[in-house]
Write the structure tokens for this entry.
Amino acid sequence: MKPGRLLSAAWSSRWGAVRLLIAIAALWFLLADAGARLARLQLAALPTFDYAAEVRHLCQMERYAEAIMVADDGLGVLEGPAREELVRERENAESQRASLLRRTRDFGLGALSGQGGSLERVAGAVTADLFVVGDVRDLAIQGAHYVADGEADTLIVLLSGIGLATTLAPSIDAVPALLKVARKTGAMTAAMGERLIDLLRKRRTEELGVVLADVAVISRRASPAGTLRVLRHVDDPADLARLARFVERAPGGAFALHVTGKEGASLIKSAPADAIKATDAVVVAAARKGAAGTEWLRRRGYRRLLRPHPAVGVVKSVYKGNAQELVSRAIAATDGRSWWLIPLFAAWALVESALIAHRFAPRRLSSPAPPAGRLAPA
């Protein structure tokens, strides 16, 4: 092809080339997210968590504060008859929790035993500690153990000492009391117990203060009884801090830990720094699918969801604003449409390629017409 003809074909194909690049970019955008899209669709296909049944179950176990926490999360996502049923179950949980006789009974049992499963029993144990009675009780019990078998729970003794020293500051005193309940009921892991003993013995007050503050954060959102269940998944202060930040920043975080338990806590604790937001969303979404969502986490169906789309990385490298969120929303919006968008953009790219190729194809010169009255040679 002559240079002039080549330049002319290139110039006439300029808009076709632009359209081809757009089609290829759109196709790449969709194909690069294929694995993550499949994981999102698998999670979305799981049955929705039965909030009303869980609230009823928790009420039967007299875990009313957790029942209300679960109901509050469900009221934010359910609509129609399912939401109306959940409203009724929440009202029932509130009325049962407000029963004066039951609350008085559980409060007294918690104060006497220093242990608890329901909110009121934990409150009784904590209240006794706030007024020194619980700390003196625990020291007396541990002293009796030491006299009888030469052993006492070091952590209970040290935490009781904190309680006696902070009686005039209830906001500080309540958390050591809750930690004592966790220790007595087996809700605290051995590793976390040893770490607390080390901090208390060495009087590392700054680190200890951070631990107490993190327990307080979880307690405010998950209820004291719910905190005892969260502590079962904590082996050191770093684990505790990650879980506290999760329930603090993620709407439904306390509910997510309640439903997913060990699986959700493990994922939150191991989340890489550049995937914290994505991990939060995955754990909360899985929790709203109930046991099926927890099993999905156990099978590590989330792995592809924690890998950012290449387009997000490109945008992040050139723009630090909300463009990343816009790209993420655009990716999620294509999930239910990819089955026809991918063939559409592939066909578009093929057509544009064919049109450009046609412009660059060499043209055949037509044979000259024979003179009038003469036949063309055979």
